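User: Before I run my own analysis I want an independent prediction to cross-check against. Here's the chain; please return only the structure tokens and, at the end, one sentence I can use as a sanity check.
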Amino acid sequence: MTQLKKFTFCINTEVFNDEVRVELSSNEDIQRSFIGRGYQQVTSSSFSSILIYISNGHAQQDKQRSSTFLNLQYAHVDYAELFLLQNNAHLPRLLNLRIEYESLTTITNNFTNNVTYFNFDRLRSLDVCQPFVRPEKFHQYFPLL
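Assistant: Structure tokens:
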């Protein structure tokens, strides 16, 4: 009978309910449980993935003026920088943005970075997921709001 010599796994878990506490085993815990059963070589691999969520339930009237929604509410601030800084991504049709206010203040350095660095000039809707007072330079970053 053939035996498994090497076992490689990757477990990716997402929890979308903030009110539920979930205790998950680490990759190392899972590795130890296999090694304890006599497997000689157990490894785990990790990867990062990017989920791009585009939502538009209406047919396009004019293909050049399509509405685009970017939801970064649950994304690490690094992904906000990745998508919202113009030197990283060009989003000429970004009209609607959902982002945590803390991420927004981080990437704009409390609204002191150069306005032209960002993909905000055409935004028509901004959801920062909490009440906030617009900073003095807010309108410079979001001229259409």
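Sanity check: Confidence is low (pLDDT under 50) at residues 46-55.
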